[in-house]
Amino acid sequence: MPHPHDASAVTALYQELILDHYRRPRNKGTLANADAHVVRKNPLCGDEIELELRFDGDRIAEAKFGGRGCSISQASASMMTELVRGKPAVEARALIRRFAELLRGSPDAAADERLGDARALRGVARLPVRVPCAAMAWTALEEGLKAAES
Ligand code: ZN
Known about the structure:
Blueprint: H1 7-23, E1 36-42, E2 47-56, E3 59-68, H2 71-84, H3 89-103, H4 107-110, H5 131-149
Antiparallel strand pairs: 1-2, 2-3
Zinc ion binds near residues 47, 69 and 73.
């Protein structure tokens, strides 16, 4: 493990985690009986995400995604689905808010273990042009949760 104060080693570790989710995406695929189906596009970068959710009451029983695009957009979707699967909608909403804080550069959010692997995307806060790439899967989730409410 790199020393926590060795900034470049930590950055390399984060990049490795992003590439790992990009190359071996978690929860990629489709759901046979999805309750919510959301498509989001980021024309700035050519990213696309198709998110499918299945609910069990107020809980996200399953989350799968499809799509293509840059490593940040696809890794973010992989991290997000991994994080919210099995969680109640209220908890997923709290994670959406927390991740938005991370993308605004909040050190508090960057230290929040509830964000799991998604904390690896903290560096995106310094790259405003890439923020929409990282945010896309999470706004898709927000939309999917809204769709399930109505
Ligand atoms: Zn992108």
